[in-house]
Specification:
This protein is an alpha+beta fold and about 140 residues long. It has two helices and four strands, in the order H-E-E-E-E-H. Helices cover about 45% and strands about 20% of the residues. Helix 1 runs antiparallel to helix 2.
Amino acid sequence: MSDSVSSSTAMSIAATALRAQEARMRIIAENMANANSTSKEPGGDPYRRQVPVFEPMTIEGGARGVKMARVQPDKTPFKTEYDPSNPSADATGYVKMPNVDPLIEALDLREAQRAYEASLNVIEASRDMQSRTLELLKK
């Protein structure tokens, strides 16, 4: 691959990043929606936070983009709360709570949004360069 990257290649790379960040935002939204989801059975495990795993991918022309390879469970231990009236409580009255921290999820969401916006800016700049090149060629 040459040192310079064509604007269409830049758009293709940015498009892979858009898709990856969109998938990441969906995972974050699922985590946030389940931040208080306990088990349906006494003493059972609640919702476990999910974490997206990204990996590089080769796109047309040999350029490298990114994709979400998989989603894996966060192995952080569950928190417990004493609430013997909760139907999810174990025999000692403790309820396992999801290992989702809404503050961490909000920060991750903001980071994903910024990465998404940066990729959109790359696409817009590439389109602008293509338009200017076409205008120059018309003259």
